[in-house]
Design goal:
The structure holds two protein chains of two kinds. Chain A is of the alpha/beta class. Helices cover 35% and strands 11% of the residues of chain A. In chain A, β2 and β3 form a beta hairpin. In chain A, α6 crosses α12 and α8 crosses α9. The radius of gyration of chain A is 23 Å and the shape is globular. By secondary structure, chain B is mainly α. Chain B is 56% helix and 2% strand. A two-stranded antiparallel sheet of chain B has the order 1-2. In chain B, α22 packs antiparallel against α25, α23 packs parallel to α25 and α24 packs antiparallel against α25. Classes of the chains: A alpha/beta, B mainly alpha. At the A-B interface, α5, β6, α7, α8 and α10 of A face α5, α7, α13, α19 and α20 of B.
């Protein structure tokens, strides 16, 4: 390829990225009539594996709790919130926010799915459908699609793979820590050309490159966000020192890495023209055995991510709502192996600088035997979709009709939980 | 030979082109991507080339790979013991709470996966030493498996095997399971991939790695002898000793029972209820692994005393109390269910052909499954014979592992060790041996083609090409890798590249190389 052509292609790419950005900046004042809606942000944190609600927010004031949970009951160390509920000892940041009225517990929530299957329940949680296999796009993607009719909105997922909740018609961004891209390199430009007619790779690469450009500012000054030497190499140097120094896959990131991840996400959302909708998913909550240790580790990680988001957003925290949800809760009783099995109702968390009201969201059915769902699980008193719909309506200004028809079809029975923000 | 599409009636020349296209499909879609020269081998008879890879004796075994499960379990036991002793020593000057915290974190963080780089003091620390040995074992297992994939002449056989390894996922999400995934694949999966499904199912579900991964080893019948002993304060029983000192009562763990039904046999719509899961979990009690006092530490054992006595009813069928035979009977019945054939054949069609496969293909596989009573060699042959599987449009987007392996094959080289694979696979979302759940790795474009992942594939291609192209002509490598599937646009872009490395990177990132 000759040099002038290459230069012009690179120019086209650069100016396209620049154009997108400036269009964005120009759009903000033009939209000022919509008040501060443009600044509103929503982040959904999905905890996969069936997070145990009775450990996230142990109902230490419920008379049945200790009997049902035995050695798994969290008593003295739990961080009290009100007469009934506490938070897990590792959720110190969430607890501080709760004390400040910026975090609330939603203690008996579930999707409409009752199969106790991780994969089916995650599908329902993320598609927002009334049942499994109803649709292949995520509700957050459809919400973005709906919002974009009225104003410019971008969405980002953090992690190497895109969660279903953000997949769909709208091409959303995705980002995970890694080595930065050389903007001057020829390959990205050549590939854009090669992907011209490719509906999958074309938009994905363009979006990825734009996000990389933004990442340079969004993650500036954060340690660990850009680890070096991520890429594997071929050939000669490899034979020497064959010891697997990086370990088979790298360590489970610790608390600091989790905080950095949260701060990076916040960094993107603070960038001019950055995403206002985001999703992140955390794995490893399936606690059939050794639950106490497992959840100590996973909830510490969750708390650090949330703390990173909170700290990183700074003044934007007041414009942000964070929702933490899981596909289902676990059995009210401990099982025979120091853990719990798949259940139904679980605990969600809602956090943000502009929350209204206090106390738990939804009703607490109690853990009395006759109150348990199928004499086994926490009985759900709230449909997950109601919580999501309320936040999208009140906070993000999503039109009520669109909510009922496009974003959460066939969800009339799940009334929106309003007045949270 | 199978005619592709409507080109059937065209001239001999087109028929030859079809043969070239079929050879390209055989090595890219059914195989793991062409090595230089492989297309020529497949060209004579693309379907015969694949059929010849079906082998009753099973898959190839990685060279220099895993030790036995028992050895690994024992190594891990020693690791835990040393660690515990080190912790006891530590508690002399560290307050107990924080020492316990470290232990909990290490358990959950999977020491075998942790970063082993350390200072000189660690060389003397027995805990770290054994930890390093275990880490090297796991890395060697994964490296050997990737080397096999990158170099094998029977890549369809290996892809078929990887499908079953993923179907019966054991993930390194627990510290101990990471060390036995290599042995699990070699002992339970590879010998059975062209045998009968019920044999594969039995081997996978009763293997110590699976029993440990899905928490079966601690499950105890609430009315079993062992449970009564525990209630009477006679101490912990057998493998239950592995359980740390959380106050516990003897009882069921239904994890494995549920996942066998949902993920390994009839599927989530297979018609079972919560009551069936619980009954199956009761029947499975007793399946465990050898502890300190048993003859084979870490080997599969059946503990009569932990088995829940009595007859069980699972999916409407009554099973008499016959101890270990009771669970075998349930497993065989699950294997033979039509729902199982439908669920797994749908998954095979999705894996090999398209995220949304033609129903006719699934039906063909299902018919072969049913007629042969789940003979996997017969099902594999039916897949090769199915015209729907030869659609020239490449519908499958490669998973990260497939992309990396096929890159090595296209370059005619192989990974020299784990360190060339671990970081890039982790960055692309497919951390070695570590799917996030027992469902295994996803198998659709939506999961793997996120913007960030495409950028990271591009970065890999850039780095890899610089070292892999080695003075060769990228245009020739492109023809050798893709054959008839190479599009003129891509060939042109490669021919115009300003360096060999750039040309090879364009090949690896081309739409047709990213797919199969």
């Amino acid at each position: 390829m000759n040099a002038p052509l290459n230069l012009s292609r690179r120019g086209v790419l650069a100016s396209a990225a620049g154009f997108g950005l400036s269009l964005q900046l120009m759009a903000v004042p033009a939209m000022a009539a919509d008040g501060d809606l443009n600044k509103r942000k929503v982040i959904v944190v999905i905890c996969r594996g069936g997070m145990d609600g009775l450990s996230v927010a142990p109902p230490i004031g419920d008379g049945e709790y200790h009997g049902l949970r035995g050695g798994l009951a969290l008593t003295d160390a739990a961080l009290p919130v009100d007469g009934t509920f506490a938070l897990h000892p590792q959720l110190t940041s969430v607890h501080a926010l709760a004390k400040a009225g910026e975090a609330r517990i939603v203690p008996a929530i579930a999707t409409p799915d009752r199969a106790r299957s991780h994969f089916e329940a995650q599908d329902v949680l993320e598609t927002g459908a009334a049942g499994v296999y109803s649709t292949t796009s995520g509700w957050l993607n459809r919400a973005v699609e709906t919002i974009s009719v009225h104003r410019k909105v971008d969405a980002l997922s953090v992690g190497p793979t895109a969660p279903l909740i953000l997949r769909g018609k709208v091409q959303t961004a995705s980002w995970s820590p890694g080595r930065s891209v050389d903007a001057e390199a020829r390959l990205p430009t050549l590939l854009q050309d090669l992907y011209r007619d490719d509906d999958l790779l074309g938009p994905a690469l363009a979006r990825g490159l734009a996000t990389e450009t933004m990442a340079k500012d969004a993650t500036a000054g954060l340690s660990g966000a850009q680890p070096s030497g991520m890429m594997g190499m071929v050939g000669s140097s490899a034979g020497a020192g064959a010891g697997p120094k990086a370990g088979a896959g790298g360590a489970q990131p610790g608390r600091e890495a989790a905080r950095t991840l949260g701060q990076s996400l916040a960094g993107f959302m603070r960038e001019p023209g950055g995403p206002t909708v985001a999703a992140i998913s955390l794995d490893g909550f399936d606690s059939h055995a050794n639950q106490a240790n497992l959840l100590t580790q996973r909830l510490a990680y969750l708390d650090a991510v949330l703390d990173g988001v909170h700290q990183g957003l700074g003044p934007e925290w007041k414009n942000t709502v964070v929702l933490v949800a899981t596909e289902f809760g676990r059995t009210a009783r401990a099982n025979g192996t120091g853990g719990t099995d798949h259940g139904t109702g679980s605990t969600a968390l809602i956090l943000g600088g502009a929350l209204k009201g206090n106390g738990i969201v939804g009703d607490w059915p109690t853990l009395k035997q006759q109150a348990l769902f199928e004499n086994r699980d926490v009985a759900p008193t709230l449909d997950m979709r109601g919580l999501f719909k309320g936040v999208l309506a009140d906070h993000m200004g999503v039109d009520r009709t669109a909510l009922e028809t496009t974003v959460f079809p066939n969800s009339a029975a799940a009334r929106p939980v309003t007045g949270l923000v | 030979m199978i005619a592709v599409g409507d080109k059937r009636k065209e001239t001999i020349q087109v028929a030859l082109a079809d043969q070239d296209m079929m050879a390209a499909i055989a090595v890219t879609r059914f195989g793991l991507g062409a090595k230089p020269g492989e297309l020529a081998q497949a060209r004579q008879d693309p379907q015969g080339f694949l059929r010849s890879q079906i082998r009753r004796s099973g898959a190839d075994q990685p060279v220099g790979g895993a030790a036995s499960t028992g050895q690994r379990m024992a190594e891990f036991r020693d690791f835990r013991r040393e660690r515990r002793e080190a912790r006891v020593e530590k508690t002399a000057d560290v307050k107990p709470a924080s020492a316990q915290m470290t232990g909990a974190q290490m358990d959950a963080a999977n020491p075998a996966m942790a970063d082993g780089a350390g200072g000189k003091r660690e060389a003397l620390d027995p805990v770290k030493q054994i930890g390093n040995v275990l880490r090297k074992d796991i890395a060697a297992d994964f490296g050997a498996r990737a080397q096999l994939a990158a170099t094998t002449d029977a890549a369809f056989r290996e892809r078929w095997t990887l499908f079953w390894a993923n179907h019966f996922t054991v993930s390194a999400s627990k510290a101990v399971t990471g060390t036995v995934i290599g042995p699990f694949e070699e002992e339970a999966i590879r010998p059975h991939v062209f045998g009968r499904f019920d044999a594969l199912l039995a081997a996978a579900e009763t293997h110590p790695a699976m029993l440990t991964y899905l928490d079966q080893i601690q499950s105890i019948g609430p009315d079993s002898q062992a449970a009564q002993m525990m209630r009477n304060g006679a101490g912990r029983f057998g493998a239950a000793r592995l359980q740390p000192a959380v106050q516990r009562t003897a009882g069921l763990n239904e994890n494995l029972a549920r996942e066998i039904m949902e993920l390994h046999t009839v599927g989530v719509n297979g018609g079972y209820t919560q009551a069936d899961v619980t009954e199956f979990a009761r029947a499975m009690t007793g399946l465990s692994i050898g502890g300190q006092r048993d003859p084979g530490y870490g080997a599969a054992v059946f503990r009569e005393a932990a088995h829940e006595p009595g007859e069980r009813t699972v999916m409407g069928v009554r099973y008499d109390e016959r101890g270990k035979e009771q669970v075998s009977a349930i497993l065989s019945d699950l294997a033979a269910k039509p729902q199982t054939a439908r669920f797994i054949c749908g998954k095979l069609a999705r894996h090999f052909v398209a995220d949304d496969p033609p129903p006719a293909l699934t039906a063909r596989l299902e018919a072969a499954w049913t007629a042969s009573q789940g003979d996997l060699a017969t099902v594999a042959a039916a897949l090769i014979a199915a015209p729907e599987a030869w659609d020239p449009r490449p519908a499958k987007f490669k998973t990260p592992y497939e992309f990396i392996v096929s890159s090595y094959r296209a370059a005619g080289t192989e990974p020299m060790g784990f360190q060339q694979l671990g970081p890039i696979l982790t960055a692309l979302g497919q951390k070695p041996f570590s799917p996030a759940s027992p469902k295994g790795w996803p198998d659709d474009a939506g999961s793997w083609a996120a913007p960030d992942a495409i950028v990271k594939r591009m970065q890999f291609a850039q780095n890899f090409s610089t070292q892999a192209v080695d003075g060769r002509d990228p245009s020739a490598l492109a023809v050798a890798a893709l054959g008839e599937r190479l599009r003129p646009e891509t060939a042109k872009a490669i021919s115009r590249a300003e360096s060999r490395a750039e040309g090879f990177a364009l090949l690896l990132m081309s739409p047709e190389f990213q797919r199969r």
